[in-house]
Amino acid sequence: MPVQWVSGLGFEVSKACTDGIEFELSVSAEQPAAAGGGAGGYDPTTAAQQPLVAVTPPPPRTDGTVWDQAMNSPQAGQVIVWHAPQNTPKLRQPGQDEQEVLRETVELGTDPGPIDSAGAQYYEQLGSPSGPYEQLPAGPVTTTHRATRTYHWQGGDLPAGSKVALSFEDFDPGRLSVDWIVFVQDSRLGA
């Protein structure tokens, strides 16, 4: 699971289907002291609830470019689907051209313990960070809260091949966490 250094959030998609999404979310206690609590940082001791907003298609970036313009395609044969270079602008707040397909408060259980941080070379086949971010090093990471959750898309099924942007800070322009782009597969939850 990739874990963001500044925000302390760990996120991994296990299913991205036409009818919904399944993922694991965790909050790490191993984040810099400057980022923990205050100044917009996460406080891992009180992170039992995490907001989640998802829209499709992903909104443009804050500099006006299309969301995937800054993304590099993989080399032939690689599993990596997309990779954003350094200094990639964040996604802007969604507008009338984007449809909100999920708005939830993810209830995270108090489940301290280790997870395996994948390190900086990890990118998922089902999705990718929308931009670069500094990850915790590969290896065990201590979490304070985590949960595996399944949600159905609000408003009905999405077409296979859709791209969905997920934000854990409601696409706030000053957010610490990177957004995720999820690639909807031609499958169904529970199948």
Describe the protein in words.
Strands 4-3-8-9-6 form a five-stranded antiparallel sheet, with no helix packed on it. Strands 1-2-7-5 form a four-stranded antiparallel sheet, with no helix packed on it. The chain is mostly beta strands and 191 residues long. Mean pLDDT is 75; it is low at 32-41, 73-82 and 119-123. Helix content is 0%, strand content 36%. The chain has strands spanning 9-16, 20-28, 49-56, 99-107, 109-117, 127-129, 139-152, 163-167, 180-183.
- The total strand number stands at 9
N-to-C CA distance: 23 Å
Structural class: mainly beta
β content, as a range?
A: 35-45%
Radius of gyration equals 16 Å
Helix count, DSSP H or I runs of 4 or more residues: 0
Q: What series of H and E elements makes up the topology?
A: EEEEEEEEE
Oligomeric status: single chain
| Strand order in the sheet with the most strands | 4-3-8-9-6
Helix content estimate = under 10%
* Uncertain runs: 32-41, 73-82, 119-123
> Biggest sheet, in brief?
5 strands, antiparallel
The outline comes out as: globular
**Overall mean pLDDT:** 75
Sequence-ordered SSE layout with sheet pairings:
Layout: E1 9-16, E2 20-28, E3 49-56, E4 99-107, E5 109-117, E6 127-129, E7 139-152, E8 163-167, E9 180-183
